[in-house]
Design brief:
This protein is mainly α. It has helices at 2-14, 25-36, 67-80, 96-111, 118-135, 140-155, 158-161, 163-177, 181-189, 194-206; strands at residues 81-82, 86-87. β1 (81-82) and β2 (86-87) form a beta hairpin.
Length: 207
């Protein structure tokens, strides 16, 4: 019953008005659904993924160009690299000094508001969150990162305005979570946002 509701939600969102270019987001969403529920539900057809209206061409925006964004980028680089030396080892990323840097970065990230449209903001922050999963060693820091991801996804509103792009980034975050993906999906399922909670429930069932 829940999966059928998710199918209806997906088709409704995919047929909503969107820009002239698709960039593969709608196709990815359809492919993911059809692979996840093969044999259990009718496949979503290409026709069901076509928008009822096109709203014009896409205008490319340059990301991470503002001063605040550059500061976030520089801070992320310091988490990843030792200045003048190279990438930090996992052991280096487990020290108290690095963990303090990580906690400071999460606070700055929470306050960061990139310029541009809501979807540009969403993509930039989601990209940073994916990068953090590549850096944070298992343990409390990754648990905190999971909390940050859930809070961000349930408050963004992108699932209503740009569902295909929202789903693409959500899947990317889950993939980067690696061995913590089941824990992340459990946190999704407990989310106060119906779309995030639904993805967590459906995703757990299809894994």
């Amino acid at each position: 019953m829940l999966a059928r509701g998710f199918r209806k939600y997906l088709v409704t969102q995919l047929t909503a008005p969107r820009c002239d270019e698709d960039f593969g987001g709608a196709l990815q969403a359809i492919t993911w659904f059809n692979q996840s529920f093969r044999g259990a539900l009718p496949a979503v057809s290409e026709e069901e993924g076509r928008p009822l209206k096109r709203t014009g061409g896409f205008k490319a925006e340059l990301y991470f160009q503002s001063e605040d964004s550059k500061r976030i980028g520089d801070a992320l680089t310091r988490l990843r690299y030792v200045p003048g030396e190279g990438p930090r080892s996992e052991a280096e990323r487990s020290t108290g000094e690095w963990r303090n840097m990580f906690a400071d970065f999460l606070r700055d990230l929470d306050a960061w508001r990139p310029s541009g449209s809501e979807i540009d903001f969403f993509h930039q922050k989601a990209t940073v969150l994916q990068s953090l999963f590549q850096l944070a060693p298992p343990g409390e820091d990754r648990d905190r990162l999971i909390e940050v991801c859930v809070a961000f996804l349930q408050s963004s509103g992108a699932e209503r305005q740009n569902p295909a792009e929202w789903l693409m980034q959500l899947k990317g975050i889950v993939e980067q979570a690696g061995s913590d993906a089941p824990k992340l999906m459990e946190a999704f399922r407990a989310s106060s946002n119906p779309a995030v909670a639904l993805y967590g429930t459906v995703g757990l069932a299809s894994r």
